[in-house]
Each structure stands twice: as C-alpha cells, then as structure tokens.
Design a protein that fits this description.
8-stranded mixed beta sheet; alpha+beta
C-alpha cells in the first residue's frame, strides 16, 4: 500500500489517530485516483474547519436526486456513515477512510454498486483536534476510558456541546449542518459510529437502533431490531470471528445476571431521533477495552457487512422506507382518535433536595444470554486473560411512554414566532402560511398548570436545565389568521414535528427553553388542529 494512502492509525501501528489536516490530506491524495468518489463539504465547524462529505457511486450518481432515482427504479438504497461525533471515539474516522480507499482503489468496489454510500468521516473536527493523552484515559476503577491510541480529542465540540444530545435543540452549528445534510440525502440507512466503555463484556462491538416504537414509524424500527441487525451480527461473526450483540450495560456490574439495559429513549440521542423519521438507524459502539487496532478492524468490517446487507436487501429496504413515509402521510391526512404518539418517556420523581428529576426506565423485551467473563475476572475488573462466559439475562430495551397524544391534523404557530418556524425548518419540517385555513376554527389548546425545571445531564461542558410544563388540554373556537403558520401532519417528518411541538414532550421546544416566558394560567401559543374524526360531536341519546 502506498504510504500516502495509509491512514494515520495504520502508518503508526495504531498508536495515534488523525487530526483534521491528516483527514483532508488523505482525501486529497485519494481523489485523483478515482472518478467514483465525489468530495464536497457539509460546511465549516464553529472554529472554521471543513466537514468533508464523500459520496461513492459506481455509476457516478453523486446527487441526492440521482441517488433516489436509482433507489426507486433499481432498489439501490442510500447509506450514510457518520463518524467521530464524539471526537475521543475515533475508530469510525480511521475505518471510514480505509473503506473509502478500498472501495475506490481496492477490492471493495462492489459496495458502491449495491448502494449509494455517503460518508462523513470527521463530523466533530474541532473536538477532534484537541488531542490529549488524558482524554478517555483508561480507568477501570470507574469503568471508564479506552485502550489506546496515545491521545484523542474531546467528547464535546470546541464550543463545549455534546452533539449526541443535540438532535432536537440543534444548538451547535455542526448539528444544524448535519441536519441539512441528512435532509438533503434522506438516507434509507444511517450508521453512527461510537466507542463504548462501561460494563465488561466479551463483544468486540455492540450495535443498536431506535427503541421508541410507540413514537415513530414502527415497522422500520422493528425490521432493524428484529431482522437486519441480528442477521448482520451472525454473518460478521461467521466471516471474521468477531462477536457482536445489542448495546447495553449490566444493570449491576457486580452481578452479570442482573439484566442488560440500553440507554434512555430520548430523541436528543441520534438513534431515537432518526427512529422518528422513518429511516433505518444503526448505532455502532466499538468495545473500548479492546486494543485500538481491533476496534478499528471491527468497525471497518461491520461497515462492510452493513453495506453488503443493504445491497442484498436493497429493494426491501427502499420499499420499507417508502411504505413508512406513505403511511405517515396518510395518517396525517385523516388522523383517527385512537392513533396516538408517545412524546414523554420520563417518570417524574424527587431527589433528596426535593428537586425534580426524571427516570427513563427500559422495560424487558426478551430473555438473552450475554457474553462476558468469568466471575473472578469481573470482580477484579481485568480486561485480558479471562474466560468467556455466557450469563443468562433479560434484555431491557422496551420503552413505554408516560404521556401520549392523539395525532393532530396540524399545528398552528403564531405569526410572530418565526424563531419556532426557523427551528422546524432546520429539522427539514414543512411549514406553510395559514392562508387556506384562515378564520375561526375548532382548535385544541393547552393551559399551563405548573412550571418547574430539571437538570439536563451530559449536554456539554456547561450546566443546563430543562423547562417542564404541566398542562391541561381543552377544545375551543379560536381565530386562525392568514399570517399564522401551519405545520401539516401529512408529511414525512410529522413525528418529529409532534415531538418538538407538544408542550409535555420530554425533548421538545418547551424543554429546551423556547417558551420560558409562559407561567401558570397562560395558554401555550401553539394550537392543535384536530382531524375530522376529532371534530365529530358525540351522538345524542335517543329516548323512546
């Protein structure tokens, strides 16, 4: 392999990882060698670094329009890989560059014949270039950190924002750029590459998908969880010997039979957000206690496996996503009173200081055997030399909403709230003027009963609180002005709009401070337009 086509990880025998300039040099060296790769930019980070986007297509369909035409006619899905969202978790970045090289100049050209492949190798460049040996340093007493390389970037952006808690509030410039890119490409499959620490287990990588089945188009989520990911795990192990399973941690690290539990079902996390969009989402978590070289290898190999699966099942994947979109639109055109959307998975409680806090319980889905280590190894928290042991467990990854709402026909946003409209559009949600609906209309509105705040964990390097409103919904005749805004529900991203606009949502605009001037007794200014079924009067009793 020519030296200029080796990644920094490869050229240093996996002792180091690349900075932004290394990534750009690699792309610049590869680009002249192929006409099957198109290089563009998502935009620039908060500190002015380019965020490259690479598109791979055997027949040079380098635009979203051309790629989706191939998807419709040939069943060739669009697959997007995004790496380095947390810039201390660098396996995906190195593996994506290796994949780019091997698809275009090596033996993996088949991967871009079966799919249009969109790769963002370095999503968080500012955090990436803050390399320090202290970042993600191994600390087994706290079950934290990773084995190599010699220094990585930060978890957050240069501005101190956790991009994987930013999918609904879109506070970071990088989040808004990715949302625009996601909206333009509208990939059928999205792959998000991370590195996990936490419990000791015997998987080289764990994977996951959205689990908020009661909030988004469920068929896509269930297909990914029950069919696609198990199949990929089996073929990867058969081909490479690399063991994988669903992401999680032991509920009690002292007891490897205590249950295997995933993370909270909030759409501030990328996987749960994309579950609302009706597209396939795959979260990858390389095992941080394995050597860096092995983590890069398994990330690379599962990229290959995902792309091979997408090609082999392309027609089914494209049709599944199209059915989900059509179903969402049809439900929004004629919402029924029993069609509900989960918008809040949190159970309110109080800490010892009387402060409002929320727990997001995951409920049991199925029995499982989790591959980990013998008890002596677990007690000693050793990461080498143990005996692989299968522990009987329950897999906790089913989320049940505490608050659900009926699907509306649309939402009315006051004309003055252009900030809300701009934010919805940043999410690629369609918003239009209310001209065709102007006049007095039966609407549903929320009256604020109480207001509190709750602490927001791990959103960045600055403390953050969330606003919590307790509300009562009522029906009333109210005027809709032609200058108001309508958010119709007969659109692809209706579930995202519902999650953002409902005032009791656990990850909506209210929670992130967009309506902080409201006080008890006030009316929440965003009104709901019910469907025709919701407007029908109750039947009158007949007395003979």
């Amino acid at each position: 392999m020519p030296t200029h086509l080796l990644t920094v990880a490869e050229s240093t025998d996996y002792t180091k990882t690349s900075v932004h300039a290394d990534v750009m040099r690699f792309i610049e060296a590869l680009a002249p060698l192929t006409d099957r790769m198109h290089v563009s930019s998502m935009g620039v980070s908060a500190e002015g670094r380019e965020i490259p986007v690479l598109v791979f297509s055997d027949d040079k369909r380098f635009t979203p329009e051309a790629a989706h035409a191939a998807a419709r006619t040939e069943g060739r899905p669009v697959v997007m890989l995004v790496c380095n969202i947390h810039a201390g978790e660098v396996e995906g970045k190195e593996a994506a560059l290796m994949l780019a090289r091997d698809m275009t100049t090596g033996s993996l050209a088949r991967l871009m014949r079966g799919a249009t492949v969109v790769v963002v190798p370095l999503y968080n460049p500012d955090g990436n270039d803050r390399i320090d040996v202290k970042h993600r340093a191994l600390d087994l007493d706290r079950m934290d950190g990773q084995v190599g390389p010699e220094g990585v970037g930060t978890r957050y952006t240069g501005a101190g924002i956790n991009l994987n808690r930013d999918y609904t509030k879109l506070e970071a410039v990088e989040s808004r750029l990715l949302m625009a890119c996601y909206g333009a490409w509208n990939p059928h499959v999205f792959v998000d590459s991370h590195t996990s620490d936490g419990s000791l287990h015997a998987y080289l990588l764990t994977f996951d998908t959205s689990h908020t089945v009661l909030s988004g188009p469920k068929d896509v989520i269930l297909y990914t969880r029950d069919t696609m990911l198990p199949a990929i795990g089996k073929t990867l192990e058969a081909r490479t010997g690399m063991r994988t399973w669903f992401y999680g941690n032991f509920r009690d690290n002292a007891d490897p039979t205590s249950g295997w539990e995933t993370y909270p079902g909030l759409p501030r996390y990328g996987s749960h957000y994309r579950g609302l969009t009706g597209r396939i989402d795959i979260l990858l978590e390389a095992y941080s206690y394995a050597p860096f070289k092995d983590r890069v290898a398994v990330t690379y190999e599962i990229f290959v496996e995902i792309l091979d699966y997408a090609a082999a099942h392309g027609r089914a994947i494209v049709d599944l996503c199209e059915r989900a979109a059509a179903d969402t639109i049809a439900r929004g055109l004629d919402p029924q009173p029993d069609d509900t959307i989960g918008v809040n998975y949190g159970i309110a409680t109080r800490n010892d200081a009387g402060e409002l806090v929320f727990q997001y319980p995951a409920y049991a889905l199925m029995d499982a055997e989790i591959a980990s280590w013998d008890m002596d190894t677990l007690r000693a928290r050793r990461i080498t030399g143990g005996t692989v042991t299968k522990w009987k467990n329950v897999f906790y990854c089913r989320f049940v909403p505490e608050i659900s709402v009926r699907r509306p026909r649309g939402y009315v946003v006051p004309a003055s709230r252009t900030d809300v409209v701009d934010h919805l559009r940043a999410h690629n949600i369609e918003v239009e003027r209310a001209t065709r609906l102007a006049g007095n209309r039966r609407c549903e509105q929320y009256v604020v009963l109480a207001k509190e705040t709750t602490f927001s964990p791990d959103v960045g390097n600055k403390p953050r609180v969330e606003t919590v409103l307790w509300v009562h919904r009522e029906s009333a005749e109210s005027p809709v002005a032609a200058e108001d805004w309508i958010v119709p529900m007969d659109q692809l991203l209706a579930h995202v709009a519902i999650y953002l606009l409902e005032p009791q949502s656990d990850d909506g605009l209210v929670r992130w401070g967009w309506f902080d001037t409201l006080e008890p007794g006030d009316v929440y200014p965003v009104r709901r337009l019910p469907g025709s079924a919701g407007l029908a009067p109750p039947p009158r009793a007949k007395f003979e």
